Amino acid sequence: MPDQAHEELAHQLLNCSYEALNPVQRSVIDLIANEDPTHINPALSHDHRTFGSRLADQVAAVGGSWGFIITFGVILALWMGWNTATKGHPLAFDPYPFIFLNLMLSMVAAIQAPVIMMSQNRAAARDREAADHDYTVNLRAELEIMHLHDKVDTMREKQMLEMLKQQREALRLLKGQVDKLASKKA
Predict the structure, then answer these.
(1) What is the 3-state secondary structure (H, E, C) of the chain?
(2) Which of 146, 126, 109 is nearest to 32 (CA)?
(3) What's the rounded Cα separation, in Å, for the pair 39 and 133?
(4) Of 94, 68, 90, which is closest to residue 80 (Cα–Cα)?
(5) Model confidence over 140-149: pLDDT tens digits?
(6) Residues whose CB falls within 8 Å of the CB of residue 91, separated by 6 or more in sequence, listed in order
(7) Residue 40, φ and ψ in degrees, nearest 5
(8) Pick from 11, 6, 8, 12: nearest CA to 29
(9) What is the predicted pLDDT for the residue at 84?
(10) Which of 35, 38, 73, 183 reaches 20 to 30 Å from 129, CA-CA?
């Protein structure tokens, strides 16, 4: 059961009851009501990956780089160049049509593709968590700004009322002085 401050903030900032809010909105109202800072999700700041996950992320980082593409291209060119230059010699280990090379390329692709996909899935999950945290921070900032606007408007209204009161008093004094001057002339 929310306390009165939570209920008032929910009505004031979101125009609905605290009970009608979704969990993210409730957590933001709780943070504002308790004046707590918004903390980063511990899962975002700590690396809890297993060895296999770290290895998959490293393979994806290397396999998706220009260094890998250039090095792989050079190795392919050397492989084909060597086997073409040594054709008919015992040093040619994979003569044209490079069947062994095709087998190696297929194995690399078969292993590398799922590893990269696992890494991308983990990155997408972390991105979703970061986006959820960003949403919470942004919603809180927006609600805090609205709250500050309301406070400033209230202060301005009080200030304007005080100025009007002072103006009326000044006009009353001026009218009194004008009446005195008018009675002296008469």
Answers:
(1) CCCHHHHHHHHHHHCCCHHHCCHHHHHHHHHHHHCCCCCCCHHHHCCCCCHHHHHHHHHHHHHCCHHHHHHHHHHHHHHHHHHHHCCCCCCCCCCCCCHHHHHHHHHHHHHHHHHHHHHHHHHHHHHHHHHHHHHHHHHHHHHHHHHHHHHHHHHHHHHHHHHHHHHHHHHHHHHHHHHHHHHHHC
(2) 146
(3) 9
(4) 94
(5) 888 889 889 9
(6) 82
(7) -75, 140
(8) 6
(9) 93
(10) 35
Task: Extract the tokens encoding 28.
Answer: 């933001």
Residue 48 in tokens = 């809890």
Residues belonging to the chain: 186
pLDDT tens column, 52-109:
888 888 888 888 899 999 999 999 999 999 999 998 888 889 988 999 999 999 999 9
Tokens, residue 36: 């707590």
- Do 57 and 115 meet the contact criterion of CB atoms below 8 Å apart? no
